[in-house]
Amino acid sequence: MIRFSFSSFYMSIIFSNIIIVILYVIFRSRKRMARMGLISLAAILCAAATRMIFPVEFLFLSRNIHLPQDVSYFIGEFLTPRFLNGRLSAWSILQIAWVARIVYLLVRFIRKERATSKAIMYGSRSLPLSSPAVSIFRDIQKEHPKAKRIRLRTFSNLKSPGIYGVWHPYLLLPDDLPLTEEQLPYILRHEVSHYLHHDLYLKLGLELLCIVYWWNPLCSFLKDKAGDILEMRVDYKIIKTPEQKKDYFDCLLYVANHATRSKNNFTSPASISFYNPNVNFLAQRFIMISEGKLSLSNKVRRALLLVSLTVLFSLSYLFIFEAYYACPEDLADTVIPTQGNCYFIEKDDGIYELYMDKTLIDTIDSLEYYPSSIPVYKERR
Length: 381
What we know:
The protein is α/β, with parallel strands linked by helices. The chain is built from eleven helices and 13 strands. Strand 10 (342-346) and strand 11 form a beta hairpin. The longest helix is centred in the first third of the chain and has 34 residues, at 90-123.
């Protein structure tokens, strides 16, 4: 069985934030990024996002570990929701505020995307059939029939070429950016590759994840770095030969120069642009593209990272740190085990049987949370 609880929720947040911090440390150094490689970066991102998407515990797999009594008291008294007995706790209020903010951000996101979609639908223009871009784009569509759904248009409010739209995709070229026949194949193939690899769905999913976890600043960092990784992955797909690297670099720099001078401001979570207006990221792309085969030492580092990540991810589901506390109101009609009414029978395998008034009521593996005054007897053979 699967259960969502406060304990599984904060375990998810702790684990995912630790992984995002690791990703941050790697992105702080371009050399470190090159050593780890795209596979490792993508694995780190997937682990963090997956743990945030599934903040649950698997009852058949997870083992609960009780938190210290002081921490348990704080969680039990102030944070744990108590809807059944009518008490409104701090955790209940936080849940209400959390959901209310999600609804607000989701409505705002939908309204913005509808307005953007209309602006592109009525503001973009088809290219002349004699245009080199149309000819090159048709050749790409013949290679990849799934790309026939994409409509090639020009748009006046763009800094950089890009692809927009999950269900009705547009490949958009800026009106004021003249492109040569040598540059067009790189740009068009780059954006078509994003579509074929469902990157628009991934970016939209991460945007929705940030809406759900709107209060977590590390989630926005995860979304931004996911976009960077998607760009670098497509760079690898496009470039096949050393000669193409130089031409691709020149194309990137040409678009970047236009974007930095342009006053256009079109942005959308449902779009992916050829150029990201981040000088540091542009340098990172150059380094990742220029990277050759990984050395043996780098392969060892990457393997150790992936193994550690797998272990950490598994442990986050195997062990759930849970509060062990009941508030006084909940214990009003409860009989408390004491020296006068209870005793334990210690089994050979380290398990304890709890008897109350000579009746077996529970089997446990630890006496930590029971009064030390309760008698403990060895099992007779």
